[in-house]
């Protein structure tokens, strides 16, 4: 596969996965926006993180992330902890309640996708499963 094909495949992967998440009907109502869910997922993946690092990783401004964190903190989904490396800074960590909400959001989105997946052939499902697993392995190597 040449560079142009890889670029087109990458673009298709990103746009399709984003559309699936936005498009899938939620099977049960959840109190989280997709942006809030992304932040909880990032904290679940990386552990406690500084606001500035979250802003950089999410490609948005610090004030935007700070507002999201304040709402998540008020809901009891995240907590601020002092940074052991710098007492002036805060680390944002996922609470057990935040993990429960993340699991609920993922379950709801997954349930919403199931009817569409059931329309795929066995061959397409196998290819999709193998592609997803390959991407997971690659992401695990990258950290």
Overall structural class, as computed from helix and strand content, comes to: mainly alpha
What spatial form do the alpha-carbon principal axes imply? globular
Strand content: 5-15%
* Rg of Cα set: 18 Å
Strands of the widest sheet, in order across it, are: 1-3-2
**Percentage of helical residues?**
55-70%
Reading the helices and strands in chain order gives HHEHHEEHH
**Helix count, per DSSP?**
6
3D structure, described in words:
- Helix 2 (34-46) crosses helix 5 and helix 3 (51-58) packs across helix 4.
- 69% of the residues lie in helices and 12% in strands.
- The chain is mostly helical.
- The protein starts with a helix and ends with a helix.
- A hairpin with a 2-residue loop joins strand 2 (78-83) and strand 3 (86-94).
- The longest helix is centred in the C-terminal third of the chain and has 22 residues, at 96-117.
- The chain is built from six helices and three strands.
- It has a three-stranded antiparallel sheet.
């Amino acid at each position: 596969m040449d560079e142009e094909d890889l670029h087109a495949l990458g673009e298709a992967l990103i746009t399709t996965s984003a559309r699936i998440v936005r498009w899938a009907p939620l099977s049960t109502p959840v109190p989280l926006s997709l942006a809030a869910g992304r932040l909880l997922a990032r904290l679940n993946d990386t552990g406690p993180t500084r606001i500035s690092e979250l802003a950089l990783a999410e490609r948005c401004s610090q004030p935007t992330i700070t507002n999201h964190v304040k709402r998540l903190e008020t809901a009891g989904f995240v907590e601020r902890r002092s940074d052991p490396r710098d007492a002036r800074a805060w680390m944002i960590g996922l609470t057990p309640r935040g993990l429960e909400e993340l699991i609920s959001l993922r379950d709801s989105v997954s349930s919403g996708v199931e009817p569409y997946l059931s329309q795929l052939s066995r061959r397409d499902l196998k290819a999709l499963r193998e592609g997803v697993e390959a991407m997971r392995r690659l992401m695990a190597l990258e950290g």
